[in-house]
Design brief:
The chain is an all-alpha fold. Among the domains are: 81 residues, no CATH class; 102 residues. Helix content is 78%, strand content 0%. α1 runs antiparallel to α3, α7 packs antiparallel against α8 and α9 runs antiparallel to α10. The longest helix has 49 residues. The radius of gyration is 25 Å and the shape is elongated.
């Protein structure tokens, strides 16, 4: 028990030290540079995931949080089961649940952002169809009374005079292909508006249909994702209950060969779940690259 707790604490210390080095606080030796770069890239990936999920954390904060959750769950699983293989599985499950929660939060925010962009396109079309206002005045209306999620961005664009640099910053923050098209249309036709209203109407109809198809496909994936998750979680729950009942059927798994066999089987299950989820992942919609002169 003490050895396991010491190993877990040492692993957390090593992880935190690697993140600190990756953050530039300590100058690494050349032999350690590859490990530092790997830790830095992983911290950047998890930091970007947390940012898209709406969490305002330091650069290495999300990765440290995930490692801490995994180690805590592994320690608790070992205290309950007394099996290192199940302890590793418990830590991996906790890490997967945390990443999954961030993914669900990211999806919810992205869908809200998509709906806001479509609503902004619709409002622009309606304002330009009346002929009473130009693009600049229509953007001011969006900055004051447009979708709540985008008011700050439109205020920044209006404050920047609608220059390409202001649109580029807004595109980077919103990170939606539809907003890229909106930005391109405004930049090409500014400032009078031209024939933007028909273009916005076609864009609204096409994007709305594409979003409906995408969300229907995502809904159809729920059954397969749920099945793959149950395949992994149910055996772990069954083994956990058997450990709590101190069942003699698990005695064979308390030996070293038994632990290796159990660990291999759990690794195969986790790998199969990862493959299924990779197959179900929808391709990302391509962004529109603009050259801001």
């Amino acid at each position: 028990m003490a050895d396991l707790l010491g190993a877990l604490a040492g692993g957390l210390a090593v992880a935190v030290a690697g993140l600190v080095i990756g953050g530039g606080l300590v100058r690494p030796r050349r032999a350690e540079a590859w490990l530092v770069r790997a830790a830095g890239r992983l911290a950047a990936v998890e930091g970007e995931r947390a940012r898209r999920s709406g969490l305002n954390l330091p650069r290495a904060g999300p990765l440290v949080l995930e490692i801490g959750a995994g180690l805590s769950a592994a320690t608790l699983a070992y205290l309950v089961t007394g099996m290192p293989a199940l302890a590793l599985a418990g830590g991996g499950l906790a890490l997967g649940l945390l990443v999954g929660a961030l993914g669900l939060r990211e999806t919810a925010l992205r869908r809200a952002r998509q709906d806001a962009v479509v609503a902004a396109v619709r409002t622009l079309r309606q304002l330009l169809e009346t002929g009473a206002v130009g693009v600049t005045a229509a953007l001011e209306v969006l900055a004051d009374r447009g979708p709540v999620e985008l008011r700050k961005e439109f205020r920044a664009v209006v404050a920047g005079g609608g220059r390409p640099a202001a649109w580029a910053e807004a595109r980077a923050r919103i990170d939606e292909p539809v907003f890229d098209l909106l930005s391109a249309a405004v930049l090409v036709q500014r400032p009078g508006g031209g024939e933007l209203a028909p273009l916005f109407k076609e864009l609204e109809e096409a994007v709305t249909s594409a979003y409906e198809v995408e969300r229907e496909a995502a809904a159809l994936q729920v059954q397969a994702r749920s099945a793959s998750t149950l395949i992994v979680c149910l055996p772990l729950a069954f083994l956990g209950v058997m450990c709590l009942l101190n069942s003699p059927y698990l005695d064979v798994y308390r030996t070293l060969p038994g632990q290796l066999f159990l660990g291999a089987m759990l690794a195969v299950m986790a790998g199969g779940n990862a493959v299924v989820r990779a197959w179900l992942r929808l391709p990302a919609e391509p962004r529109v690259e603009l050259v801001d002169a």
